[in-house]
UniProtKB/TrEMBL annotation:
One of its GO terms (biological process) is protein O-linked glycosylation via mannose. It comes from Monosiga brevicollis. Belongs to the glycosyltransferase 39 family. It comes from the Eukaryota. PANTHER family: DOLICHYL-PHOSPHATE-MANNOSE--PROTEIN MANNOSYLTRANSFERASE, PROTEIN O-MANNOSYL-TRANSFERASE 1. It holds the Pfam family MIR. SMART domains: MIR (SM00472). The chain crosses the membrane at residues 90-111, 147-164, 171-204, 230-256, 574-597, 618-638. Residues 286-350, 370-435 form the MIR domain. This is dolichyl-phosphate-mannose--protein mannosyltransferase. The keyword Ribonucleoprotein does not apply. Keywords: Endoplasmic reticulum, Glycosyltransferase, Membrane, Repeat, Signal, Transferase, Transmembrane, Transmembrane helix.
Length: 669
């Protein structure tokens, strides 16, 4: 390709708009919260679940690791500051920005492959460069820029392949690049399956034409060449993409060997393959909990931490603006050190008649055994070291005022919330719920448990915040009355280190092993089910696909809390509207020409004979881009769930170059 000064100008403009002040804002923007967290999970090796294939997230994780990130991504919501963290967010954004710059160059090459003039190619590249939406989506830690670049490279390589002689070095290189592109595109997002459809149409068209030539003059040599062509395409366009796709999942699973936030979505055999999962830990005591069981309670929220208490009290401190003070009762925290005597709790069953809510009939237990515990039983959690019961009340937690304080209550405690007088012994009763199965047994290491306070209906949880020095920097334990406002794992507990002298030891539970292929199938089943469960309700920034080309509604990605600066995703109205009008106006005369030619058969033959090259170029260029746009766009029209404007970007890129391609053909004619 000769030096094109206009293209250099377009690329320079693109570099400036994609890289200028890339560090701003130094806060988490939109889905950076999710993809940054996924990168941190790869670095820590903790299993997670996401709707999309893993390659794009693996790329971000690799860049984060090379940039020095060694810990978790701590930004939990839009607007959380990167300042002071170890997250190399600038390098991670640079991945997307580099892809955004490359997209403009690939658009130019795609139009050249379709036979367009340099003027037309530069126009197509310029339309992408000046598009606001393309610019914004190329500056964030999200998958869209990677997806669009891989998709366009795939289509471009396939188009250029049709320009070279079969089996030439250039033809083989383009074929290989097409296969690599297909594997990479589908491994980033399943929207990349649209590229499979586009490449499939081009391949079928090309193979069909060559098959007609073979059938017209069948010889042994022509048949062998066609079969060799078919075999090479099968290897490069089917086997190679599948190998890449499966390989990314193999790498994904290899990098996430430890139990994490994604465990609960999967079967017991899948979970048992993860280090530290409750189904992968050996039972060191009786399998089922009973009245009098002594256990340690491990939270599934983040890194391992056990429910803990010690002979230190909450300090007397002002608690917000409501005038309340702390209870000054014994601290309850979560401690990351295992085998600590202060982390042992005895479960005492509340009998019928002792408490008004304990009217549920108990499931019978053999007379020679202590009463076994079942889902819904009422219990006390008694701290073994101090003998005090776990307690919560209407006092704000020390660090999170919206949560209730959790403490251990002694009969002599006199500091109680205003309006409460003396000791209230019934405030130490909890309901034990089994949340991960319909089976009622409360099992050590196997059951996911929730403890709900009988009087206030507040669930015991870890807030995720570290207490100051008076709490020895251990994790805050509190209780919430609204479990829907916190992560499920925050209030999920597992009983381990179970001891009970009157119960028999457990025999080893047999959990079937699961192969890599079994994991791969289950992963895709869960991905499909999660996609089908996505909300169908309208969102403030969701929009129906039919209005996407008209850019009537955008998405607010980020807003400064003080000066109302915003990052708002919106396409360039001038470009989008002109393309919509242009496509509509060009469809009418094209249709009229076809009707006119059909009505005048004798004139049609002369027109087609005289302008055969023009019609072939028109059908080829517009057909590839138009079909590609429809393949990438129409599936969203058929979906019944929340959809957002950014999903239109892959189809938009083909639509934006479809206009220049039509114009080029019109000028040629």
């Amino acid at each position: 390709l000769r030096l094109d000064m206009t293209l250099i100008f377009v690329l320079a403009f693109t570099v400036i708009t994609r890289l200028w002040a890339l560090h701003a804002p130094s806060q988490a923007v939109w889905d950076e919260v999710h993809f940054g967290r996924f990168a941190g999970e790869y670095i820590r090796g903790r299993f997670f679940f996401d709707l999309h294939p893993p390659l794009g997230k693996l790329i971000f994780a690799a860049v984060a690791w090379l940039g020095g990130q060694k810990t978790a991504f701590t930004m939990s919501k839009i607007g959380d500051a990167y300042d002071g963290s170890t997250v190399p967010y600038l390098l991670m954004r640079l991945v997307s920005a580099s892809c955004g710059i490359a997209i403009v160059l690939v658009i130019y090459l795609l139009l050249r492959g379709l036979g367009c003039s340099r003027w037309t190619c530069n126009l197509g590249a310029w339309l992408i460069a000046v598009d606001n939406a393309s610019c914004i989506l190329s500056r964030l830690i999200i998958l869209d820029a990677q997806l669009v670049l891989a998709c366009l490279i795939t289509i471009t390589a396939c188009v250029w392949m049709t320009r070279f002689p079969r089996f030439s070095r250039s033809w083989l290189l383009c074929l290989l690049l097409s296969g690599l592109g297909l594997g990479i595109t589908t491994s980033i997002k399943l929207v990349g399956l649209g590229a499979v459809g586009i490449v499939g149409l081009i391949t079928l068209h090309d193979l069909g034409q060559r098959l007609q030539e073979v059938l017209h003059k069948p010889t042994r040599a022509t048949v062998q060449r066609w079969l060799a062509d078919f075999a090479l395409r099968s290897i490069c366009l089917v086997a190679l993409p599948l190998a890449i796709y499966v390989g990314t999942f193999a790498l994904h699973l290899a990098l996430l060997p430890r139990s994490g936030t994604g465990d609960a979505f999967f079967s017991k055999p899948f979970q048992a393959s993860l280090d530290g999962n409750i189904h992968n830990l050996p039972l060191d005591g009786p399998p089922q909990l009973a009245n009098g069981s002594v256990v340690s309670l491990r939270s599934l929220h983040g890194s391992s931490a056990w429910l803990h208490s010690h002979a230190h009290r909450y300090p007397v401190y002002p608690n917000g603006t409501d005038g309340l003070v702390s209870s000054h009762q014994q601290q309850v925290t979560a401690f990351s050190f295992t085998n600590d005597y202060n982390s042992l709790w005895r479960l005492e069953l509340v009998r019928q008649g002792e408490f008004s809510l304990a009217a549920k009939p108990l499931i019978s237990t053999p007379s020679d055994l202590p009463q076994l515990l079942y889902h819904g039983d009422l219990i006390r959690l008694v701290h073994v070291a101090t003998g005090l019961p776990l307690h919560t009340h209407d006092v704000a937690a020390p660090l999170t005022p919206t949560l209730q304080e959790v403490s251990c209550f002694a009969p002599g405690d006199h500091r109680v919330p205003p309006g409460q007088v003396g000791h209230q012994p019934k405030m130490d009763i909890w309901r034990i719920d089994v949340t991960d199965t319909t089976e009622p047994e409360v099992l050590a290491l196997r059951s996911a448990l929730r403890f709900v306070h009988a009087n206030t209906s507040a669930a015991l949880l870890i807030s995720g915040q570290n207490l100051p020095s008076w709490g020895f920097f251990q994790l805050e334990v509190a209780a919430t009355r609204d479990i829907n406002q916190v992560s499920t794992l925050a209030w999920t507990w597992v009983a381990d280190h179970h001891v009970h002298d009157q119960l028999p030891k457990a025999s080893k539970e047999h959990v079937p092993e699961i192969s890599f292929w079994g994991k791969l199938v289950e992963l895709h089943q869960v991905m499909y089910e999660a996609q089908s469960r996505l909300s169908k309700q309208a969102h403030a920034y969701s929009s129906p696909p039919l209005i996407w080309p008209l850019v009537f509604q955008g998405i607010s990605f980020w807003q400064h809390p003080e000066n109302n600066q915003q990052i708002y995703l919106l396409g360039n109205p001038l470009v989008w509207w002109l393309l919509s009008v242009g496509h509509a106006t060009q469809c009418v005369p094209t249709l009229a020409l076809v009707v006119d030619l059909e009505s005048r058969r004798e004139f049609r033959a002369r027109i087609l004979f005289t302008h055969t090259a023009f019609f072939r170029r028109l059908a080829w260029g517009v057909g590839v881009l138009g079909a590609g746009w429809l393949i990438l766009y129409l599936p969203f029209v058929l979906m019944e769930r929340q959809l957002f404007l950014h999903s239109y970007w892959p189809a938009l890129c083909l639509r934006q170059v479809l206009g220049p391609r039509k114009k080029a053909n019109t000028h040629t004619h």
